[in-house]
Amino acid sequence: NADAYFFAGSTLIELERFSEALGYLKEAGRLNPSNPGVWFETGRALEGLGRTDEAVSGYERALSLDPENDWILYNYGRILNVEGKSQDALHTLNESIRQEPCRQDSYYEKSISLLTTGKPEEALKAIDMAISLEPTNQGYRKQRLKITAMINPMDWDPAIQKQRMKQDPANATPWLNTGVIAYHNRLFEDAVRTLDQAILLSPRSSEAW
To answer: 8 exposed, middle or buried (CB, 10 Å; 0-12, 13-18, 19+)?
Structure first.
């Protein structure tokens, strides 16, 4: 029974028993090779084993059987990013977003593709969309900082920020930037002190909070 093998394989993946899962999914694929779920789950199992190059083939086969499935498109785009195939990933993620525009992780992965292909301004728009859909996600916030550091590298120069503080003490931005720099250098007391000042100068700054 192909469905029984498929269900067993999928369940084993959730238990992170990836090698066992592959055996069941192989049999499911033999009995019913037209089920895209079998090849999608095969991709997941291979990815769980760190065999990402083989996982790509699993997702590709799933997509060939169900080309408009937004979840398969997203995962295929994500694994292409892992494999360093950023341009192909971008194309696939755009299609995933077209099919399902409210999945925040699609915009996060899109920002990775855009940043890798030398488009930081577009990457910033993508990560801002992800943040708008899930404001509390710290991974998205870190990605945004990485992108802005590429767009405005002077914002990450402590000496320049101190100079700006002296020139305009009432400007919250250099205090914010200095606090972020300190935080990423794990100088947490300095970070709190400078971010507190940024909040005093700009109480509505969501980035400082």
So the answer is: middle
